[in-house]
Write a structure and sequence with these properties.
The chain is of the alpha+beta class and 563 residues long. It contains 22 helices and 23 strands. A hairpin with a 2-residue loop joins β9 and β10. α9 runs antiparallel to α11, α9 packs parallel to α22 and α19 packs across α20.
């Protein structure tokens, strides 16, 4: 899954799940029902071992996908015989067979010679029971923050904080901005069931199970299926990632410090002024800002929320600042700002990539990434390493290095990307030259338009032009959010260049508010002209009907869909 798995286990809790699993397995699985629960063990110093509990823990780890994958076949898990014998005694294979299918290693491996284990995979009926348990077994728990139990009295008073002189201080003291957001608990549980089934069937060897139609519905939600190019492994990883987030959402919304279905969202202001949902040492890495968009829409759907976005915000900021400083247009960036979809689709077609990847490549450009080179020099490692775009392209191609290389060759020849890159170089030079710089005891720092400082240079570190441009862009972005925040009492969530609100606000009114604020910002910074942005909105509607269809498909029912 690419996540902190130990933290995940701690967050969910083995004991909670194991106890509920044991109850359900006793009801349905004869072999489990007949298994001795407490067995006296001389090896453990005369202690009793609970075979049922141990087996439930293995089942839970396997279901979540945090057990070690088998080297011969990643659809199976690997458990060493010594570990299993420690858990279950000499009859460990018999006990494991209650819940697991086990096979010899295969795949060109010989167990004795190569030191590999049997391959283990959960039985279908056991998976169904775990799916059922996970939808109901999450109890409310104390919320732990920085090692302390949080109560309604000790929760943060305000939702936004920043660090000043090494200490956290509240930054926005507006009582109407919430520290918790209510989610659609029913939708979360339904998603849990859906993605559990998707995970099961994708990892299953039975080729007759076809969930292509189910993926088409997910595509309709916004999941860029084309990104995976039919690569089964990458699709499994994507399903696992979403399942991980969904489980964490259930955990995070079941805390005693606040209402069920509410999630705590406290923001940290970065150097640039950008708002990030804060992460404490005891938190999971799941939050509403980093959720896949289609998941966020579903878990926030049906509650009267509206999502607002600024169209192509970052390129528009660069374009309008350059015009303000020079009274000239950036020919290609200006065209891209006014014809965003056309350019993205053209890049998509020319490179043979997904629309999502096309958009990401253009964003990488504005943040200073070199998408035209395969290698870069790493000063810390003192050697050449692959550029970020190489990893992104290999991820897109499912590890196909040749195809990734072919796409990069096309990038190097793409006229749209080259022209936009050249315009960005011009804009970087002008914008950074006009930014205010100070020197504090040999450390060079630069202001952005909202008077926030970032270190540009010291003896150990020098920021790139792309990083400095990002400082400027994100400063303007934060001013936009604050301008809306002061006018819209229903705003509940910052989302980088967008936001979510309980209020259905006229977009023309929002555009007037934003444009007036940023025009004022231009005047204060002695920049000619003004800034104008286009705002779009979407109601996060209830999607239960569509989810019900997906559920039927994920269970193997053949349905003809119109999507």
């Amino acid at each position: 899954m690419g996540r902190n798995k130990k933290q995940h286990i701690k967050t969910i809790g083995h004991s909670q799940i194991a106890q509920q699993l044991q109850i359900e397995l006793d009801k349905s699985i004869v072999g489990f029902r007949d298994l001795e629960s407490r067995v006296y063990s001389k090896k453990d110093g005369g202690m009793y071992r609970d075979y049922k509990y141990e087996l439930c823990c293995l089942i839970w780890d396997s279901w979540k996908g945090v057990s070690r994958k088998h080297k011969a076949d990643d659809k199976y898990f690997s458990y060493g015989w010594r570990d299993l014998q420690d858990r279950f005694g000499r009859d460990y294979r018999k006990i494991m067979s209650i819940a697991f299918i086990h096979k010899v290693s295969g795949g060109g491996y010989k167990a004795v010679r190569d030191g590999v284990t049997y391959k283990y995979k959960l039985k279908d009926d056991v998976i169904d029971i775990v799916n059922q348990v996970t939808a109901t077994a999450f109890e409310r728990k104390d919320y732990i923050k920085d090692g302390e139990v949080m109560t309604t009295h000790t929760l943060p008073k305000y939702a936004v904080r920043e660090k000043k002189n090494g200490k956290w201080v509240t930054a926005i003291k507006v009582k109407d901005f919430p520290i918790t957001i209510t989610l659609n608990g029913d939708n979360i549980k339904l998603l849990l069931s859906i993605y559990s089934d998707l995970q099961k069937y994708y990892k299953d060897n039975r080729k007759e199970i076809d969930i292509k139609d189910g993926l088409e519905v997910l595509k309709d939600f916004g999941w860029d299926i084309d990104t995976y190019k039919g690569n089964r492994k990458k699709i499994i990883e994507a399903v696992d990632r979403r399942l991980y987030d969904i489980i964490n959402l259930i955990t995070l919304t079941h805390n005693n410090a606040y209402n069920t279905d509410d999630i705590l969202q406290v923001y940290t202001i970065k150097d640039s002024g950008r708002f990030y949902i804060a992460q404490d040492k005891n938190d999971t890495d799941t939050n509403l800002q980093n959720l896949p968009r289609e998941i966020r829409k579903i878990v926030m759907g049906g509650l009267g929320y509206w999502e607002y976005d600024i169209e192509n915000a970052h390129y528009n900021i660069v374009n309008q600042l350059y015009k303000g400083y020079t009274n000239k247009k950036l020919k290609y960036i200006d065209y891209y700002c006014n014809n965003t979809k056309e350019i993205r689709e053209r890049v998509q077609t020319d490179l043979g990539v997904s629309y999502k990847l096309s958009k990401e490549l253009l964003l990488m450009l504005i943040y200073g990434a070199n998408i035209f080179d395969e290698y870069k020099y790493d000063n810390k490692l003192k050697k050449r390493v692959y550029t970020d775009v190489v990893y992104k392209l290999r991820d897109f191609t499912g590890g196909d290095e040749k195809l990734a290389g072919d796409i990069q060759h096309l990038i190097c020849k793409n006229v749209d990307l080259i022209n936009i890159r050249d315009d960005l170089r011009k804009s970087q030079k002008i914008i950074l030259e006009n930014s205010r710089v100070i020197n504090v005891r040999g450390i060079e720092k630069m202001y952005n338009l909202n008077n926030r400082l970032t270190t540009t240079y010291n003896k150990a570190y020098k920021k790139t032009k792309g990083q400095l441009l990002a400082h400027v862009i994100q400063g303007v972005e934060s001013e936009i959010l604050l301008a809306v925040h002061n006018e819209d009492d229903g705003m509940i969530m910052f989302h980088h260049d967008g936001w979510v609100s309980k209020t259905n606000v006229d977009v023309n009114r929002l555009q007037q508010i934003i444009n007036a604020k940023l025009t004022q910002l231009m005047i204060e910074n002695k920049i000619d002209g003004d800034m104008r942005f286009t705002v779009t909105k979407e109601e996060l509607t209830d999607v239960n009907k569509t989810l019900a269809i997906i559920k039927r498909i994920s269970l193997g029912e053949k349905i003809t869909l119109k999507v």
